[in-house]
Fold this protein.
Amino acid sequence: MTELRADVLVLGAGMVGVGAALHLQKRGRDVILVDRHEFAGEETSYGNAGIIEVASVFPYMFPRNLKEILRYAANRAPQVRYNVADLPAFAPWLVRYYLASEPVRALRGAMAILPLIRQSLAEHEALIAEADVGELLRRNGWIKLFRSKPSLAKALREFERARAYGVEGAILDAKAIAAREPNLTGEFAGGIHLPAPGFVPDPGGLAKAYASLFVRKGGRFLVADAATLEEVGGGWRLRGPREAAVAREVVVALGPWSDRVFAPLGYKIPLAVKRGYHLHLRARGNAVLNHPVLDADQGFVLAPMRSGIRLTSGVEFAHRDAPATPVQIERALPLAHKLFPLGEAVEAKPWKGARPCLPDMLPVIGRAPRHAGLWFDFGHQHHGLTLGPVSGRLLAEMMTGETPFADPAPFAVERFG
Ligand SMILES: Cc1cc2nc3c(=O)[nH]c(=O)nc-3n(C[C@H](O)[C@H](O)[C@H](O)COP(=O)(O)OP(=O)(O)OC[C@H]3O[C@@H](n4cnc5c(N)ncnc54)[C@H](O)[C@@H]3O)c2cc1C
């Protein structure tokens, strides 16, 4: 078997792995990017809502308000559902999520990730320019719609809070909503247009464009199962079907599957998933959707992707590998048809994916404490498309001894003991 040699193996070619590979390469490292698929961006980084969430100051934490908790516990809310059979397995993780959502802790976490959020779009812009795929970034932000006065009032309070951190936006009445999105129909209490976030109309295509850039610049892509990773004298070795690869350092960027590598190495990291679904539908006639639109009360997003209008669902707590239960998409579908003139579905059944999450909603970025040359970069929850490149930069700075542009301490795996 041929043995390829490099400085670093990056395991996982989603947005996070591709971002790490490019930033290491930029700093002179010879990198092999590894995935079980032949192409980058085929999993979670394909299926998201495409928003580069530069206006997202506060991560999605566990609700602290009893009324809201009871609403989710009833398991009928479109925003969150849980698979009853998986609940006992999930419960301890949910307790940790609840505890990490205590307001002071949550604010500390938000402030830790904020420098990355703020830098995220600039990192994408630089890579998009280098990859020459300007058509994959739109710069007109996204819109949140609220049907009830209480939900609008709550969103406006959150928006005011975010404004203190520099987030800009326009508060919309029905007329302003119609001016921005003439094809929407419905009774809205109001909306918020956040103009700063980027929108990627083909997120999987963007990961592929970044991977092509990496290869054009001399990087190598290897199809292999990351679970074959083994520690060898002074480094790491991986076996592919035809070739093996050896390097002194390895980065685990396997998103929701990162446990496949860290668990056998003895790390107990509370990585769980919040599953999500999407389905593409054709727009009817000449109807155009200008921005991604969140129907907040009905718990879904419509995003104008290249492959159709992508209807994405809220969160589902279920085992990563349990069979698909796209109840939220089924419930959202008639509501989405009422919101926007949608035609037939593009696919026979919804896509299922899994947001990789730690209970404090912060990623793990940094050195693995018990193994020389092992690095982690996973757990980017609802914001992995946004944070992939900027996390790659932070990690590469740590790995090459540069001064990190942001404090990496809050992302250290040691926070889990
Ligand atoms: C419905 C939904 C909507 C979302 N919307 C947004 C959004 O608008 N904005 C945003 O920023 N984020 C969003 N997200 C979150 C975002 O998509 C994820 O955080 C991000 O894609 C995670 O990227 P990743 O590279 O860590 O994981 P992935 O993209 O899943 O990449 C992991 C890679 O590892 C590979 N792999 C797995 N196992 C192995 C193995 N054994 N051997 C080799 N390779 C392996 C996989 O093939 C895959 O390519 C959304 C997520 C969902 C589900």
